[in-house]
Amino acid sequence: SATCSAPPPGKPEPMDEARFEAFYRRTAGSLWSYLYRLTGNEATADDLLQKAFFRFLRANPTLASDEHQRRWIFRTATNLAFDHFRETKRERARFDLNAVAEAGPSMEPREVLRHDMMKTFAELKPRERALLWLAHVEEEDHEDIGEALGVKAKSVKVLLFRARRKLGELLSKKGLAPEVKR
Which of 8, 83, 72 lies closest to 38, judged by CA? Predict the structure, then answer.
């Protein structure tokens, strides 16, 4: 009788349909959120998400752990997003400001603040947005962020500092920075 044997210890298992589906369920939501914040556009995030998972399936990487698979897909998605910015010759995401203008004073203060924050976040360069998102939303460590963005882990600390400072300056100019008590 034919038996299905497990791979030797330490050797990665190939990805089957059930493992891929479970991986997709665990990863797609946070990856889509990351891509949306990076690009500022739902349709673009949808497209890049599909392309990233398509490349994952096509490459069929045999990675040692779920964490390695997660890093692989985030790195691929980041590269796809950067390629998207290069192809369209734009670095800034665009937001539909007409909706805010039409809503005018009827918008809730929280909605206005959220929109202002999204607009401000979009003023950052794509790599700065990626750094901040991965560090503060996905709570990735410097090594994982470095791998996802293709930079050395030691560089991430400096790049994050600069991205935070730039975001802080943008927020201060718009009067959205928190008040500092002295």
Answer: 83
